[in-house]
Amino acid sequence: MADPTQEDYTVEAAELNEADALDKIVLFALDEAMAKLEQGGELEPFTIVLHDDNLLIETHPGEDAIECFNAAAAAVQLMAHVMDAYVFAYDGYISTDSGTRDAIIAERGKPDSEAAEAFAILYNLDEEGDGSITFEEGIYDLGPASSLLLGVQASIDDLDELELE
Predict the structure, then answer these.
(1) The domain containing residue 25 runs over which residues?
(2) Are strands 115-125 and 12-13 parallel, antiparallel or unpaired?
(3) What is the pLDDT of residue 88?
(4) Rg (CA), the chain
(5) CA nearest 142: which of 25, 17, 26?
(6) What 3-state class would DSSP assign to 89?
(7) Contact 88, 72 (CB under 8 A)
(8) Cys staple from 62: which of 41, 43, 67, 137, with CB 3.0 to 4.6 Å?
(9) Is 97 inside any structural domain?
(10) pLDDT band at residue 2 using 50, 70 and 90 as cut-offs
(11) Can you give the pTM of this predicted structure?
(12) Per residue in 33-68, pLDDT tens?
């Protein structure tokens, strides 16, 4: 997971294709997160797990970012043996050339990949006025992020090697 306080992102325009199933889920996650923030609510981190043509959506509330991350990682790891992919979405911030920016971040990963990929939509919150949110145009590619499945494949491989009596 990209730490919500990550400062080493290179922000580039993302090229997501709605015809690609995983890209479509990233877009769906970002749209859902934007809608939640626009309604004036808190954005609880959530995961979307893809299994065949089914989506499992689960929120991961917590007292802090670490607790939310651990809950998301545990949920995704439980599904690792049957999932095709996952998306983890949360409210965070990134450091850019123009300073620290609020962002909705969506990370996507697959069980057969060592790293996830992170994407973001930047936004501005009018804290001194009416509290309105203005989202910037475009989705940004933040590059690789740690997979929520890190270490799970080794455990699955170890289980495959066990001999049952």
Answers:
(1) 12-159
(2) unpaired
(3) 96
(4) 17
(5) 26
(6) strand
(7) yes
(8) 67
(9) yes
(10) very low
(11) 0.81
(12) 999 998 877 899 999 999 988 899 999 998 988 889
